[in-house]
Amino acid sequence: MNPVKPVNPADPVNPAQAVQEIHYRLDAPARGRLPGAHRSRSGDSGFEFRGHAALKDAPDPRRLDLHASLRDPFGDWRVRLYSQRKAVPVVVLADLSASMAYRGQQHKPAVLADLVDSLAWSAWRAGDSFGFVGCAATVQPGWLQLPTRQRHAGAALAQALRGWQPQPGAEGASADGLLQAPALLGRQRALVFLVSDFHFPLPLLRTALAGLAAHEVVPVVLWDAQEFELPERWGLLHALDPETRRQRLVWWRPALRERWQAALAAQRAALMQAFAEAGLRPLFVEGAFDADAVTRHFQR
User: Fold this and answer.
1) Pairing label, strands 86-86, 35-38
2) Which of 6, 27, 243, 260 is buried most, with the most CB atoms less than 10 Å from its CB?
3) 196 - beta bridge partners?
4) What is the mean pLDDT of the chain?
């Protein structure tokens, strides 16, 4: 397990290594207590008009509304209420099972690292806190970072993720730790990026999504084109299951190619159905990390 080294906030940032910024937003009003950039339905001294209240309930004469007071049937003085913008925790909940170590056209841990680095920087820019929870068969203590508002919170995590290797044996062969993660997220509604290749049983996915129902979840599907590429010709092919490390020698032929492609289409359709049942829109990352593509996901 790779421990995350702390980063000194006073360390200068190398402009050549500047990360890409993501502009995200919440579908529902934020419920935090700290000021931030997201709209909410609480507070009475912000900038977004929410309604009126009696002066005795919101004693701020500066926001007295004479017209609303004259229209009040009970003759009460009415003041305007303005919702304050709030901060929210931004958390990456990452599947660190063996299949996430796949190296094809892209190295999945490197793509995850770029996403973490970008999200942590963007959260700091928006006044939000950033956290990370890495899961294999259990939640990995060495990959747990509680939400923090530290400026360079993602830099050390990203560096460690680029050198990450999965746990050997049963510990790295499943993503069951995703079921334990919600207990670590706290009660405040957070923006959770659930990052995985989702090469695990659908019942596990549905149970994990049910446990995250109190939060706003963005599923991020990391796939690589070479995971699904098939040879053009007939012949023998070594097939490897990254989770169990089992190998099979397969005689490749056109009929098997058709079955493989049908299974891939069925897997994608089943994933989309599971996300739709939970009211979620997944973000597919099937190549290098692109911060603009993540931003566009929030603009649809």
Assistant:
1) antiparallel
2) 243
3) 221
4) 84
